[in-house]
């Protein structure tokens, strides 16, 4: 029996991702609501993660987070043009429905990141099962550890397999 292949993109919501980062650019309080929920690697679109990471870096240095400072931070990291420049930042701000929804948008991004983690774990469990090692308890232990890591917020550890 062959392993099933999936031709679908993993769960993601680009609009919610952009609403999160746009909220951070226009609302100084938004980061207090979003930072406990999200890590940069939770973003499906890598460039949104870069913008979020730049916001966190500024905030951690007690600097103002807004369109200008984030653009400067991205430029310092040689990422401004990669994200789409000032035009991208201005566009997501223009399309932002409302910044008080930042935590709501962040929970959507986190939910989809968690679903991607479950897909990743399920793929790993599937692979371990096909390898059929002699010690099935090791497979159960590894599978349980994968699920626990996701449940405990340890996913994603890296940006493996994420769309650019």
How does this structure look, described?
By secondary structure, the protein is mostly helical. It contains eight helices and no strands. The longest helix is centred in the C-terminal third of the chain and has 30 residues, at 102-131. It is elongated and about 60 Å long.
Rg from C-alpha positions? Answer: 18 Å
Order of SSEs: HHHHHHHH
Major sheet details = none
- Average pLDDT works out at 90
Measure the end-to-end span.
Answer: 33 Å
Quaternary organisation of the protein chains: single chain
Structural class: mainly alpha
Strand elements, count: 0
Number of helices: 8
Strand composition percent? under 5%
Shape: elongated
Helix content: 55-70%
Contiguous low-pLDDT stretches (5 residues minimum) are 159-164
Secondary-structure map with pairings?
Layout: H1 14-26, H2 30-34, H3 46-60, H4 67-76, H5 80-83, H6 85-95, H7 102-131, H8 136-151
Gist?
With 164 residues, the protein is an all-alpha fold. It is 63% helix and 0% strand. The chain has helices at residues 14-26, 30-34, 46-60, 67-76, 80-83, 85-95, 102-131, 136-151.
């Amino acid at each position: 029996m062959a392993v099933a292949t999936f031709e679908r993109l993993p769960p993601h919501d680009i609009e919610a991702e952009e609403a999160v980062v746009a909220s951070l650019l226009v609302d100084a309080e938004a980061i207090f609501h979003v930072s406990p929920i999200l890590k940069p690697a939770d973003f499906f679109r890598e460039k949104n993660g870069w913008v979020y990471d730049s916001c966190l870096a500024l905030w951690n240095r007690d600097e103002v987070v807004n369109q200008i400072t984030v653009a400067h931070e991205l430029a310092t990291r040689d990422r401004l043009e990669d994200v789409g420049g000032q035009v991208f930042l201005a566009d997501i701000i223009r399309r932002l429905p409302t910044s008080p929804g930042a935590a709501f948008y962040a929970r959507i991004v986190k939910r989809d990141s968690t679903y991607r983690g479950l897909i990743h774990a399920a793929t790993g469990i599937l692979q371990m099962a096909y390898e059929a090692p002699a010690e099935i308890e090791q497979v159960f232990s590894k599978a349980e550890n994968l699920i626990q890591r996701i449940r405990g917020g340890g996913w994603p550890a890296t940006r493996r397999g994420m769309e650019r």
